[in-house]
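User: ok so my PI wants both of these folded by tonight, can you help

Assistant: No problem, let's get them done. Here's the first:
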Amino acid sequence: MLYDCAKLEERDRGVTAAVEAVQRGDLVVLPTDTVFGIGGDAFKAWAVTALQNAKGRDRSMPVSVLVGSRNTLDGLVYGLSATARDLVEAFWPGPLTIIIEHATSLQWDLGETDGKVAVRMPLHPLALEVLRETGPMAVSSANKGENPPAKTAADARDQFGYAVSVYLEAAVSSDPMASTIVDLSGSRPVLIRAGAISHEQLIEVAPDLEHRDQ
């Protein structure tokens, strides 16, 4: 089902349908502040496997996680560094993905993660509404194989069809930029990918930020 969330009545039904689908272990497509994402419950192994299969990926490319609250991080790790908390406070919700060591007690399988997870809190009201009901979701850009990321939920439906239970249509940026990725799993923060948040913005918060190639 595709729901046009620009219409209030459809939005409410769509959010409910998406939350119920994720709770069943099905896949959904939803907008974020960067691109449309395809995702499922991060704690249901079969949902993550279905996501990887739909994308045409294997376990060597682990799936990122979206959360609906900064506080959710405390349940995913044993402890966050001061730098990590400062970056999250400054740039979440928004286009900053952080790589952190996750708690070994977590019952999830996101692929070959080496004990780490890439986490983001998106700045999109519809995504946040869903995430606050579902909890952490394993999410990847809504495209199959080498296709470009879908610009609408309808585009995503053309690619994924019945592999996805619910599609939420809503406006996203007409010129989206990928999220900036910072690895916080080591002793110092490392900029892995430049994106919507600039290096200059990052070093105002994390002066000891390093580049991956340094």
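One down. Here's the second:
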Amino acid sequence: MNTIGRLVILVRDYEEAITFYRDKLGFEVFVDSEESSLRFVHLRLPQQKDMGIWLLKASSSAQRDQVGRQTAGEPCAVIYTNNFDFDYRRLSENGVHFTKPRCADTNAEFGHFVDLYGNEFVLVELKTVAAD
């Protein structure tokens, strides 16, 4: 094994999910194709070409029941930033809901937010440690 390619997120509707992830979070669509009645939608952050999110439309009642709850209330991903203040403000202004107030400790500044279905993500800026 070498790398992780995609994080799979179950969605109710492709268009509403694409709109949220693209317009509110800043992801870009780099695959949107249909083969044998299956649609493949892959998103990524513009700065990270090799890792992304695969949106997968829930097709069974069991899958639909899990939309927004795939990780049982735990974060499904951590997204790193080099400028927490800028991204926190940008996401908040785009209508992204932060579920826990921004916090800081000796290693990082972070905040928890949810997508349109309730999947939780953590926005993190790691603090640099000065060399001795």
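The domain at 6-126 is CATH 3.10.180.10 (2,3-Dihydroxybiphenyl 1,2-Dioxygenase; domain 1). The beta strands are 6-11, 28-35, 38-44, 52-57, 77-80, 97-104, 108-114, 120-126. Good luck tonight!
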